[in-house]
Amino acid sequence: MASTPRVVVVGGGSTGVGVTRDLAMRGLDVVLVEQGNLTHGTTGRMHGLLHSGGRYAVSDQKSARECIEENRVLRDIAAHCVEMTGGLFVKRPEDTEEYFEQKLRGCEECGIPAEVLSGREAREREPHLATDVEKAIAVPDGAVDPFRLVVANAGSAMEHGARIETHAKVRDLIVEDGEVVGVDVEHGAKPGERVHGVQSGREEIRADHVVNATGAWAGRIGDMAGLDVEVRPSKGVMTIMNVRQVDTVINRCRPKGDADIVVPHETTAILGTTDEEVEDPENYPEEQWEVDQMIDTLSELVPILSEARSIRSFWGVRPLYEPPETGTADPTDITRDYFLLDHEDRDGVPGMTSIVGGKFTTYRMMGEEIADHVCAIFGIDADCRTAEVPLPGSEDFQVLRDYMDEFGLRSPIGRRSVERLGSRAEEVLGTDAPNPVVCDCEGVTRAEMRDAIDQAGSDLNASRIRTRASMGNCQGGFCCHRMANELHPQYGEPVVRDSWDDLLQERWKGQRHALWGEQLSQAMLNYALQATTQNRDSDPANRDGSIAFDAFDGGPEAGAMADGGPTEASDGD
Amino acid sequence: MAIESDVLVIGGGLAGTMAALSAAREGANVRLTSYKQSTLRMATGLVDVLGYVDGEGPVADPFEAMDRLHEGHPYSILGEATLRDGLSLFDDSVPGYRGGHTDANALVPTHGGTVKPTARYPASVAPGVASAGGDLLLVGFQTVTDFDAPLAARHLEAAGVPFDVDGVTIPFPGDLRDDAKVTRYAQSLDEDEEVTGGGRQLGTRKDLAERVKAKLDGHERVGFPALLGEENHDDVRADLVRYLDVPVFEVPMGPPSLPGMRLEDRLFAALDDSGASIDSGNPVVDYEADGDGRVDSVILDRNGNRVPYHADQFVLATGGLVGKGIASDRAGVREPIFDCHVPHPADRYDWFEDGVFDDHEFARFGVDVGEDLRPRDGEGTVAFDNLRAAGSVVGGYDLAAEKSGAGVSIATGYEAGRRAAEEV
User: Fold this and answer.
1) Can you tell me the ipTM of this complex?
2) Which domains does chain A have, with CATH numbers?
């Protein structure tokens, strides 16, 4: 080829950033377009499990082998995104011995380290496990922060010359002479949103190849070129608890079923999940029974969950795919494998490849396979390096240093910041400026918040996913306004107000599913702070018309003010 | 020896203290029992009476606007005269508050950059009311993340305030930690800690005033986040006024709220003066009835011992969802001590709306009362002859949207205490 091929990747989830980073590192000219924030789709709505492969060791051994391989890779290249909690498959009396043995054998066959623990040994590791748990299999499951991982991939891709466009929705594919030659994109027009070069409006981005990495949305992109990409979106609920009731991933050791996993994630524990096919990945019912089922069923494994405080729930849609005519009825039986659809081979439409199915844990491997495929199309001979080169934040990051003294931060705030930032800690926290805490629940300081704003622009939800600010127990009641304050003066007051409103609404969305007990009290407190103390519900700046200020009390008579205002002692109390 | 009183008030927030003051003024022997810190320290210390009705507002005259409230609202049940009597009791009992000179609401700047309507406000807030003229300088501190003065200034401008407003951010005198709490700032001013400023030793107050003086630039009043001392608050503000030679005011903030704590201190001082006894630190966990529809005693848990407190009349002022006077689980909503009926939809997905500031059902959760403030069961029958409810434990109003929380606490507290004393 005369010039460097340009590839447009559609989708800013794990697969999209994974392939973008890979192609950029191989020297291609890559543009990623994402309709929302990074992780806007399924990636931002998962339970954060770094699979050992144990979950697939019986039913889907190909996936299981890929998982354990990528599990090892991510521990290495994404150390600051991964917490190796370990995992247990626990057997209750009603779960069969036969399946337990199958699981153990499956792990061995797939090369997944597995160790049998007695019930007592399992409870020594996790004291809150039910007393009738008979035994368990320990596997190297872990927890991974999908936001941090995706942001790090995007950051690395940009370092290698890629262009990342968030809030850029594909309106159409450009098809000429039966070939896909680019995308027609509409950039988010809201002022102040992160925009590179282009402020707003439409843009035609021409491409030598388009990669459709839109997961559950892949069918929609396919439709734009008359291609049938039969993704079967399946929704699942995740219910977040306020603390880590367990420090190990707890899986139920039985063939399949809803509500069978608890993942410790940062300061929380995430209960999952359900599996129900939906028509529309953006519009599906979020139902009470799903939340209730998480708590009721998982209490069989960890009884204290029944009395514990949930802070919110969220739903994600799996981008399940199976080749046409497979005809699996139950979505839980659809393979978790991924498929690369070359539309030239498959449909006679050159210029585009879709990647569908798959799992978060194997995002890098999927990216590698697509990148290999794209490079082959252009006859480029370049090796994949994504399994060897650490992500930004995980370079030379061996041991967590105690930055407490160095940055004047109190532990555990210093420790948590360093965990999130990894090897970038020094760069971000090494500031001479005052560095007060913005979010108490998650220990996020101004320096970290400002760093996120530098990356994410004025969208506070984008800074939220980078820092975890407002994602703790109070769900933003004590910190949404503080986060908004950090946008000023870089962004003007109307932009700040708008972004603040969006953040309040987003924080409310998930809490609706946790409104009982402590969290209902918290919700009322937050409502009182935001509406009563701050009057944000009736903010005059957001309302039409003006206030007749002179109809209101102008204060005690002017005479009393002459000396600079009466002090309260002058009342003679 | 049995613990006995004419009137026993359960709860030490605004409603409970008002009920106790009201009953004591009627001559009753009063005991007030409180458990944890009240929600006063979470609130601004402003006394909101009524600022919005069905989202319309801000209303200039809360008494006039009361007529437009729905039928079951506590104000509609009690009537305007009771609210006025309650406010008079508040004005007589709590020194240092302003606003009683008029029926009109004042508009007070908030730390979020809006203005909000309120009926009574601490003297420290008075010079800042947005319904008065005078160019205004807001001062924020680099390390106080709750208040960004320049942003609040721009926001107030967008709200249309009738004066010029600017904001500056300065370092606070001395070398407090970056993550110091607002109470630490207040302490530094309370004690006028010696700091080094401009190469010499001087007090925190003087140093702060000098830092601000350099930015004053003709502004006619100066506002600070509400951290101008706690114990010696009056002296702190008087010194700042003296050094700066302009009126100085506070912008109320969220928890921990110093104006809220000062209000709490004053209410308890008034309670001491009234002769009421105060018992704090132990929760009420149960009650005993006499079988004749009367509460005989409530049971306090004192270090694991169940101790009965007898009284002729009881006032339930345990707070709402925030104060835990109203409890809930996935199955329903209840009042935990007497199990009084709390009207609520059976389906918990009907407790809320989808927009963050929509008209939420949960905001109105509380016990159902008639004009005598006695909680009623689902059929409208009085639960106990000698039990009355006051404050946020009473349902039927949305304190946050209406900006009516303090006013309802004052009116219901006043009336519950008065009626309880009358029955003794």
Assistant:
1) 0.97
2) 6-42+147-230+336-377 (3.50.50.60), 83-143+232-317 (3.30.9.10), 404-542 (no CATH)
